[in-house]
Amino acid sequence: MVVADVADAEGEELAAELGPPSRYAHLDVSDGDDWQTVVTRTEREAGPVSALVNNAGILEWGTIEEQSPESFRRVVDVNLQGAWLGMRTTAPSLRRAGGGVIVNISSIAGLTGYTGIGAYVASKWGLRGPTKTAALELAADGTRVCSVHPGAVRTGMTADFDDSFTAAQPLPRFGEPGEVARMVLFIATDATYSTGVEFVLDGGATAGPSTDLPAAD
Length: 217
Known about the structure:
2 domains; four-stranded parallel sheet; about 40% helix; globular; alpha/beta
C-alpha cells in the first residue's frame, strides 16, 4: 500500500503505523508529474496498481459573489482535477494488473447544494461525471469505478463544527473516518457487481426532512 499526500510528516507516520509493506510518497494531486512519479515508483517497488482511492480534498469558504476565481480554482484543482489526474495516470497500470478498482471520495455536497462553499460543491458534483465515464471506459479492462459520498465526518475539515450540525439527521451524530474506510473496503472487495454508482453514508442527512404526519381520526 502506498500512502500519498502533501503532508509528509503525517503521511510517513501513517505508513509506519500501517507497517510493511506500506510506504509513503509525496504527492501533490494537482500535479500530473507528481502522479506519474508515484505510479512509476509503485510499479517498480510493488508491481502494477490494483486499487486507487482518490481522497484528497480541500474546502475554502465564500459565497458565489465573495469567492475569488483563484480560490475557486484551488479547490477544483485538488478535489476534481486531482482525482481526474489520478484516474488518468493509474489507468494503464490497472490495465497491466488485469483490472482493479478506483474509489473517488466525493461528498453529499456532490448530491445537493450548500451555501457558502460553492467551489467545494462544484468540485464534488463534478467528480460524479468522470467517475461514471471512467466506469464505462475502463470496464473492458476489468476495472470498476465508484464514488463515495460521506456526510459530516470527524476530520480536520469539520473540527470547528459542533454537534448542532448533525442534530437534525435521523442518526444525529458525526460519522467516523473508520466508517468511511470500511465502505471503501467493501467497494473494493465485496461490491464486485457495482460500478459507476454512488455509495452514500451520511446518517440519513439526504433522506429528506423528518416530518410527522397528522394522526388519522
